[in-house]
Amino acid sequence: MFHAGTQLKKALIVVHRWMGVSLCLLFLTWFASGMVLMYWDYPAVSEADRLSRAPVLDAAAIRLSPQKAYARLQMEFQPDRVKLGTFDGRPAYRFRFGDAESIVSAVDGQTLKEFPPEMTLRIASSWTGQPPADAKMEENMEEDQWTVSGEFQDLRPMRKYSWPDGEQVYVSTVTGDVEQYTTRASRMGAYFGAIPHWLYFTPLRKHSSAWARIAIWASGLGTVAALCGILIGISTYSPSKQYRREGAPSSLPYSGQKRWHAILGLIFGLLACSWAFSGMLSMDPFPRLQGENWDSTGARLGEALRGGSLRLADFTEGPREALGRLGRDFRVKELQLDLFAGEPAYLVTGGQNQSRIVPVRGEVAAEYDRNKIIDVIGKAAQPHTIAEVRLVTQYEAYYVDRRRRRPLPVIFVRLSDKDHSIYYIDPKTARIVQSYNSRARWNRWLYHGLHSMDFPWLYNHRPIWDILVLILLTAGSALCVTSLVLAWRVVQRSFGQTFLGPR
């Protein structure tokens, strides 16, 4: 039995040593780039970015109702979503059906199907606020570092406009929209943060399946390597100090870098193991954690809140008249045709994250009726009942955002089903903004909790979160530096004679 234990320890040492040689540099890169990723995201264009850069909607220029504008498309079915905003300096409707979208001018009903270079240049120039004459244009036909993910595949060809100060804007010739935007600072942050952390190197990332497999296997093997190190450290450590080091009792038989590696591994090895494991979970290697019937449950409640399909004929009051009810102080950026419990309304978004609801029948409001939202959810959840409902006014365990972009307040609803399903509903839109079942809750803690340390108490008392995570990342980096030194020694011992000859 003692012999078997010794053999097992030897096997663990061999596995840990060679996996460490293979992965120590990758682990060091993950820890170091994680510090950068705390503060610099990978460049992306969000809806908030679009709204912040959008001009104020000129209500006086709106000539066509949504119904008349849609008639120009000669479609027999109703659109899934309708928005009214500014496109190329003029009010325009966006009609969406599934993944497809059509743009129709609200001024003259012109259907925009092609986006010539002079138009996309104006769009890019408006986005940056820079002179069009200073821009340099390139055709973006294939993946580059900033358009490498699959979401850009159907948006090509794109036109890339670059300005002398480093701003770069990608405008799709399919949608006419700005689909990517970078600056010198955002690119630099990504080169040192997101790209090495996510293995987002263009030659690899453009092959999505291969990239996903490599990321999963690398983090999975890293988890095994760290776990082997923890087991070795625990089995070697002697609380009674049975070893001798420089003539004095010692709890570890090592010296130099190996001793530092053992000490740091005993203290922070579990951290390295949990970060590698939770990083693997970010690639969703176990889809069952998300719950098998979650989509149908969430979709049913979402449909109930909406209350039917959008019918343009129900919007008897036009957008121009609806906007007139808001007053001159509200600077409208975008207007969306909305339904809540079957009742048509305009959901209006302005600057500085302001929004208003303008019902076709009813008074202007800042949000939908909370009691009615709860009543709709209760009826749609049957045969289950609502077990708990409350108003959430600050971020909590299952509704948290380090950058504080998610809406507040929201309505929390927990159902009496076997999964104890929970929903967070934004009363300003009557939409579900976050949801969990029992399996998804496990994923929340195993991935986000372990990987990002996204605990509400820490986020609400920054910079405590920053200090803690930076300390842990620095400790993890130090552990990897000792691994790198030891790995170099192993390579020298094992291959030095072969490649360098006898010394």
Describe this structure in words.
The protein is built from 15 helices and 17 strands. The strands form 4 sheets. The protein has a 7-stranded antiparallel sheet with strand order 4-3-2-1-11-12-13. It has helices spanning 2-37, 47-53, 66-71, 117-128, 184-192, 194-198, 202-205, 208-236, 256-281, 294-306, 319-324, 370-380, 438-452, 456-460, 464-500; strands at 81-87, 90-97, 100-105, 111-112, 136-140, 158-162, 168-172, 178-182, 243-245, 248-250, 332-340, 343-350, 355-359, 386-392, 410-415, 422-426, 431-436. A hairpin with a 2-residue loop joins strand 1 (81-87) and strand 2. It is an alpha+beta fold and 503 residues long. The model is unreliable at 290-294 (pLDDT under 50). Helix content is 44%, strand content 19%.
Integer average pLDDT: 91
Poorly predicted spans:
290-294
Question: What Rg, in angstroms, do the CA atoms define?
Answer: 28 Å
Tell me what portion of residues adopts beta-strand conformation.
15-25%
Please estimate the helix content: 40-55%
Number of helices: 15
Q: What is the structural class? A: alpha+beta
Shape from CA axes?
A: globular
Number of strands: 17
Report the end-to-end length measured between terminal Cα atoms. 42 Å
Sheet having the most strands: 7 strands, antiparallel
Instruction: Report strand order across the widest sheet.
Output: 4-3-2-1-11-12-13
